[in-house]
Amino acid sequence: MPSFITEFFRSRALRRDASPVPTGFAPLSRVRKAAVFVDGSAPDGGRVISAVRAWFDAQGKEVSVYVLNLSDVQFLGEGPLQAAFLHKKDVNWYGRIRRRRRTPQVDRDVDLFISLIPEPHFAVLHAAVSSRAVFKVGRSDTPEQLFDLVVRDRDGQPSSQGEVFSTITGILEKVQ
Questions:
Q1: Residues 143-174 pLDDT 10s
Q2: CA-to-CA distance for 30 and 26, rounded, in angstroms?
Q3: Which of 85, 107, 131, 171 has the most CB atoms lying inside 10 A of its own CB?
Q4: Where are the alpha helices (DSSP H) in 65-158?
Q5: DSSP 105
Q6: Per-residue pLDDT tens for 22-47?
Q7: Quick one: pLDDT band at residue 105, thresholds 50, 70, 90?
Q8: What are the two backbone dihedrals, phi and then psi, of residue 21, each rounded to the nearest 5 degrees?
Q9: What digits encode the pLDDT tens for the residues 125-139?
Q10: What are the angstrom distances between the C-alpha of 62 and each of 58, 68, 95, 107, 121?
């Protein structure tokens, strides 16, 4: 449980960096660029990154993939993965992604924001709030109702990131 001081700085950062762009469901035809957050501690991370890249390439859309790995578990990916990795050292003391030259910066000028991370982490919430995306998709609802579409686990059983991504892509293809 974060302390009062941590919560104060987090809420201040969310208010200060919030995007003024209104969000809602948007058809895939309006999406030019997307940002996707993947859980680096999950065993299927490498396959998910490849699937995300392949799907967006097939749609003719640009995508930036960010792997959030804040645990001590080493990321296991096969082959060369085109993704920006965010580690513990890339997050400041209250959870926001640092603004340093060596830290991968999350692209704010995207049209679609997808978080495949099951537990809401402040770094991802801050990235979503500050993103200028017109359509935001996540796996868990927040008190601020940040995401326009929330894909939950089925029947209380934890779903893999790959299953959730295929569900999201099915919905994106149907939204007109």
A1: 778 899 999 888 778 889 999 999 999 999 99
A2: 7
A3: 131
A4: 122-130
A5: P
A6: 999 999 999 999 999 999 888 888 89
A7: confident
A8: -75, 125
A9: 999 998 999 999 999
A10: 10, 20, 27, 12, 25
Q: Assign residue 43 the CATH number of its domain.
A: 3.90.1640
In this structure, what DSSP letter does residue 84 have?
E
C-alpha torsion angle, residues 115, 39, 168, 127 (rounded to 10): 10
Which position has the token pair 């490498």? 46
Residue with tokens 């796996």, as numbered in its chain: 139
Please compute the mean of the pLDDT values over residues 60-86 and round it to a whole number.
77
Nearest alpha-carbon partner for 43 in 158, 167, 169, 170: 158
CA distances from 27 to 141, 154, 165 (A): 21, 25, 17
**Which are the contacts of 155, defined by CB distance < 8 A and separation ≥ 6?**
none
Tell me how many domains the chain contains: 1
Q: Which domain holds residue 41?
A: 4-174
Mean pLDDT of the chain: 87
Least Cα distance to 111 among 136, 148, 147, 129 occurs for: 136
Task: Tell me the whole-structure pTM to 2 decimals.
Answer: 0.90
- By percentage, how much of the chain surpasses pLDDT 70? 91
Tokens read off for 134: 């017109």
- Residues β-bridged to residue 150: 138
